[in-house]
Amino acid sequence: MALNSAEGKATLSFSDGTPALELPIYKGTIGPDVIDIRQLYAKTGKFTYDPGFLSTASCNSTITYIDGDKGELLYRGYPIEQLATKCDYLEVCHLLLFGDLPNEKQRAEFVSRVTKHTMVNEQMQFFLRGFRRDAHPMAVLTGLVGALSAFYPDSINLHDPWQREVSAIRLIAKLPTLVAMAYKYSIGQPYMYPRNDLSYAANFMRMMFATPCEDYKPNEVLVRALDRIFTLHADHEQNASTSTVRLCASSGTNPFAAIAAGVACLWGPAHGGANEACLNMLYDIQKQGGVAKIGEFIAQVKDKNSNVKLMGFGHRVYKNYDPRAKLMRETCHEVLGELGLGDDPLFKLAMALERIALEDEYFVSRKLYPNVDYYSGIVQKAIGIPVPLFTAIFALARTVGWIAQLNEMIADPEYKIGRPRQLYVGSVKRDVKPIKER
Ligand code: SDX
Known about the structure:
The protein is mostly helical. The chain folds into three domains: 8-57, Single Sheet (Rubrerythrin, domain 2), CATH 2.20.28.60; 72-271, Citrate Synthase, domain 1; 274-383, CATH 1.10.230.10. 49% of the residues lie in helices and 5% in strands. It has helices spanning 40-44, 80-86, 89-98, 104-115, 124-129, 137-147, 161-187, 200-209, 220-232, 240-249, 255-266, 274-288, 294-302, 323-338, 345-358, 361-365, 372-383, 390-410; strands at residues 9-12, 21-26, 34-35, 64-67, 72-75, 78-79. The longest helix is centred in the middle third of the chain and has 27 residues, at 161-187. The mean pLDDT is 95.
């Protein structure tokens, strides 16, 4: 959205004789101010340099706010703690997409629209046949989401608000179906069609765990836990996969292709792939001796040459406890209690590892705390979700955030195709020599 008038200025002076430059400063509703450098190159011939974007705001947004020092997360101003306990995921989807929580009538209409789009074209099943049964679900999902653009030519024009809304509903509705299909394909079981009489999370659990051979009644505690997991992962400001979606969509490509790019980026272990990596890390420590081996593991993490990280810990923005990790730990307690797994050794190991790490100078001095991925794997494992599917669940839940951010960018009259520059440190111009002289 267009920025209000500047509230202050920054003066940039140069030691190389370049004339000083005044740059406008803009203030947000809350959070850090920004220095508008859009004129910098035109007026000075210089770029800013910020690999990893540690000090760069790529856009202005009204969707999600994170205070990394306080450990605060707001979706459209509502604290995540309240949304995760007082709303369900589809209400949060409505909030992220349209700017506010739905009233009863709006909620009923939105739920009905999503429910009626949960089926996928029957042809989609033939894409899966091209994969090995042991293909990673994120490889399958990246392909399936991109393939959706071939089936819905009536909702691929990014510049038509109605088509953007239709593709948003289709993506939110179909991701659970596609994730469940990827799972069923991997275990050689028949796909389960979605049911219109089930809630979003219950429908997903049924498509995942039911078979045509008998009735399946989802456990309400597990359904609620899964719904909360979706809410906790729904959006998170300008993280790597959201920035990927924004940059991809800025070329004007279709929403399905842009979301497929987000899925691909989320797969990385430094990002959404951390929940799978975290559980595998806990399995490894357990195999080596469990709690008694935590000291040895922590020593490995501190040894830079080991390349071992404490997965599920640390965050670019949170320098305090990730509020989602606290809620995820509570959900862990609920789910394990419901399943009579309160003494689950992996959960006890995770809590012991967390306690030891939070008392260790290495982590304290670097402000490394558990993030959303630390406990999510334990909850998902308890619910019965296989480890390789964890990041696909993250992608399912984050799809609404990606779409909301994409829509906000495309609707901004000031948006342009994203095209960063570089500091070139390569060879100066030189001539090609004949091969005998090289
Ligand atoms: C998500 O951006 C988002 O919002 C992402 C996300 C979302 O909802 O979209 O929140 C989801 O991706 C959560 C993060 C999941 N990733 C992990 O849990 C993987 C483990 N974490 C690290 O890879 C790391 O913490 C990052 C990638 C998350 C953040 O890295 P930064 O901000 O680039 O920090 P850094 O790598 O510069 O680390 C600073 C220091 C370094 O040590 P020194 O060089 O100062 O000695 O902390 C160390 C790092 O080595 N460090 C860790 C560590 N994370 C950082 N050391 C051990 N274990 C870790 N996990």
